[in-house]
Amino acid sequence: MYRILKKQILTPVTKLYVIEAPEIARKAKAGQFVILRVVEEGERIPLTIADYDVRAGTITVVVQEIGKSTKHLGQLNEGDSLASFTGPLGHPTEIENYGTVILVGGGLGIAPIYPICRSLREAGNHVIGIIGARTKELLFWEDEMRTVTDELIVCTDDGSYVRKALVTVPLKELLESGRKIGRIWGIGPAIMMKFIALTTQPFGVTTIVSLNSIMVDGTGMCGACRVSVGGKTRFACVDGPEFDGHQVDWSLLLSRQRIYLDQEKQALEAYQAQLAESKN
Amino acid sequence: MANETPKAKRPARQEMPSQEPQERAHNFYEVALGYRQEMALLEASRCLQCKKPQCTTGCPVSVRIPEFIKALSEGNMWGAVEALKDKNSLPAICGRVCPQETQCEIQCVLGKKDKPVAIGRLERFVADWVRAQGIRAPTLPAKNGKRVAIIGSGPAGLTAPGDLAKMGYAVEILEALHTPGGVLMYGIPEFRLPKDIVQAEIDYLKKLGVVIRTNVVVGKLYTLEELLADYDAVFLGTGAGLPMFLSIPGENYNGVYSANELLTRTNLMKGYLFPKWDTPVKVGKRVAVVGAGNVAMDSARSSLRLGAQEVHIVYRRSAAEVPARAEEVHHAEEEGIIFDFLTNPVEILGSQEGWVTGLRCIKMELGEPDASGRRRPIPIQGSEFEMPMDTVVMALGTQPNPLVFTNATQLERTRHGTVVADEKTGRTKMERVWAGGDIVTGAATVISAMGAGRVAATDINAFLTNQDAAKSWWPEDAVPATAS
Fold it and tell me: Is this model's pTM higher than 0.90 or not?
């Protein structure tokens, strides 16, 4: 169960995994997430679904290697199995025909934006994509994104590829151009989503973000993922993960993401030492 | 009443050996060590063998208490096992976690003049003995071709499948987490209920042919309606897993946990073994646990074992109203947990960086009895004070998780979020769906959930074998179950 059918290196820090999960694939929708465990002793890692294929019976996730758990996952190969794979969790994206929509994906956020673009386009929207990364080598899925968007803007923070700009710059330009925009999605690091929300707020266009707070069970049981939206405490796992970005308390989210920084560092160092030892 | 042994000859209630408080406060091994054989026999000899035993009436599932104790005192261990397991399928668990002092033992006639028979400790002794003999699966009848889905694998979900498998049903348990056992695994700590005991019950079900499918979130992966197309009957035993908060300022500061999160990280994810296991759990030097139920005691004592130096139980009522089992309160006190009674938090204080720094509380006094029959705590004006804290744990009770109800509009629920189900059959308002345990009663006990699992299993069989085909689905004499 939960076999890795395909593993692909997308960037030096990002890998794609296609997981055999026919039942989840049948139910999954854009915007939902899964939780996986690499090994029995492993953490429950929440990942927004990057793609799903009912016929092949697969779920695709894209993972950025940051800490021990994600690096450990990176050691697995095609044919290996995960300890567990649960989903689909959270609410799907609200897909409707909003007219013209903008979807902004930053860094790893390009992955979850992709199926949302596709679903919105199938629903008749004119889809404008904006994708960006810190530098050229961290950018992925430009070609894939072209297949699910009507217009695609690509930028890098350092200008190493196409346009030198943060994703909020072309976003602001589009809004200032006077084009009628029905809805905006922004997915990426919390700090980027915060600035996307700040950019769009003056224009009054509803802006949906996908909150990546720390989770354990992902079913509403523990409350680790609580966020404040419109002054109310919500659980990102069951009430989200998508929320109105203009209502999110960003400083709370950013603060709560740092709870285990020390432990994450400790676990990573221990793991790297262990890896170095096994190589010797 | 039976022949009463002259007082002088009756042995004293046998204390159960346990790890020393100083030692156990720093490890996760089981606190209570169980009776040795001679202690069990001595304790069993205290039972008066009443002709009209009151203890049995105090037990939510009417365990044949005097019978199992008699067999035990005669050295007939298999007889004791049979009498015990007839009504209680999880005695090793109930012997450890039941609030005997408010159920069977409070009814014990001996308790009027002396201390009651230690029924729970004897139950544990018998159950541990039989587990040590190895698991024996009974001979199963031929499969009857009918399929039952059990949703959730806590006390209710571990009881119904065994009964049904023995009646010839193909039973599948659907569990949302990666490990079966529900609250017995994620909630109750290792030091109170060793996980190998729960695992033994799960292994037993597997030997009975019960299929356990983990990582299946009903409501997300399948709706109830979809399950009804696949199975002849569905039993809902998903418990009450949704944590409650106080809705006071500061509850989202870093360092504020729901008890569910603290315990899940610690027990299910084995956070106490970090970094060998990957999931961290972070507890500061000073910890306040708000609430005084069993979950609060578990949270407080876990915090101590995770390295806290000072742990407070903060409770708005007085010692007399503490809902936790007496033994847990006693153990917590022995371990140095500080009880702040008649104290109610009004705000959690935090730093610029978003971390908990303390708790602002108000002193309370007891007024007239409230709806629960307990004296209502009333704030004392001007008595607010602050306690410096690094970690605050909210142990305020739980509600059923609504995920399982996705699209199940026929399922009637109360305003507390619990499912309406008939007490005598476990039937819900949705045809072919039964429910039992905390999902029906709200947070209650392991034994009542187990009892409800058993009631439902019996009725599922009655319904599927057409024994009461003439009856309507929702019984005319239905009594919606509530917490006992």
Answer: yes
